[in-house]
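To close the section, here is one more complete example, presented without commentary so you can practise reading it yourself. The ligand is LLP.
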Amino acid sequence: MSGFISFAYQHDQLFAESVSLIDIANEFGTPCYVYSRAALTAAYQEFSRAFAGRDHLICYAVKANSNLAILNVLARLGSGFDIVSGGELQRVLKAGGNPRKIVFSGVGKNQEEMRAALAADILCFNIESEMELLRLNQIAQEMNKVAPVSLRVNPDVDAKTHPYISTGLKENKFGIPMAEAERIYHAARELSHVHITGLDCHIGSQLTEIDPFIEASNKMLNLLDRLESQGLHIAHLDLGGGLGIRYNQESPPSIKDYVAALCVTVGQRKQRILIEPGRSLVGNTGLLLTRVEYLKHAPHRNFAIVDAAMNDLMRPALYDAYHEILPVIKKAGAVSTYQVVGPVCETGDFIGHDRKLTLAKDDLLAVMSAGAYGMSMSSNYNTRPRAAEVMVDGDTVHLIRARETIEQLIASEKVLD
Ligand code: LLP
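Output:
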């Protein structure tokens, strides 16, 4: 999706759809995550249009943003879901997601999570090790069920992304090594309470080139052809998530080109194609609204201390990630170079380095492209209540998560008798 379709200036004032961000800040306070329903819908439809005519299922990677309202909007559009925990399963069910469109990924599914997913009759478990397969077979037997499974195979492809979010290299903890895949598929066929339905891979996140996807897909297709020639029936091919978005200067493939390239690679094969996009669905549909608390002009640096911090948006501190920072009101005046930082007591607590801005105390700033892995990775570090979240729909603003209170934060703690 190109840029921030639903966030634009009107007379030098930044709006989310038809609502001024100033009004949102006044009503809901800051820091506050602001999402656009129109942008989310547009991103989903771009995926679904690109697949037109091809049997497919888009399984939104819930980890990117798990707010119930986001899940509900996607569920209403017909989306499936990729979950990685029992918590995410509960969220999807509560948001009205169809369990028959849920795939369950992750290297460490525990017994309760497996039981809950079997009870819900999900579409597929993406299995990441032989031990996990055996445990699932055992639990399914106890429950008198048959578990649908895919093996997540590690294709050993360099995703050319940040090392912390690269998952498809043989040294990563993810997936079953390619060399073992056939043996484990045949072992799975002998198990009484699992049923093989698919083949799965995921090579990493924020990929800005198409080649690694194609390389991984080709490796998967070779394996798929071998398995089928050995008499195994594979009903779907899950090619994972990972399509990047534009944060700064990147130029990732468009959703349309990415999906088209996958479809061409899969060719005439009859398998249903699954994908697990997270960031490319929600990343540019949200921003983090924050207010300048103080300006501090040290001899060699100018600091803008804002009320959002690394606990609200961890990506800069964790990956040195870049998020564009825009003034909510564009104004004339001297431009200075600022370190935009939060109130948390760590030097790593920054939102942006060396940003050229015209600022005064109490100004509002919009930290862009914060819809994915923003709120979902937030924490209460420094006993900071988590931000509010709102979703704008035309000229209406819905509060979709109230700001936490300090009382809520400490409610489950106890001092010794
Ligand atoms: N499927 C699986 C199995 C995954 O592990 C992931 C992401 C996805 C799908 C979705 O990938 P996406 O389409 O969003 O790239 N916290 C990091 C990103 C971690 C991604 C983890 N896995 C960040 O903020 O950049």
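Once you have examined the tokens, check your reading against these statements. The CA atoms of residues 3 and 327 lie 17 Å apart. The radius of gyration is 23 Å.
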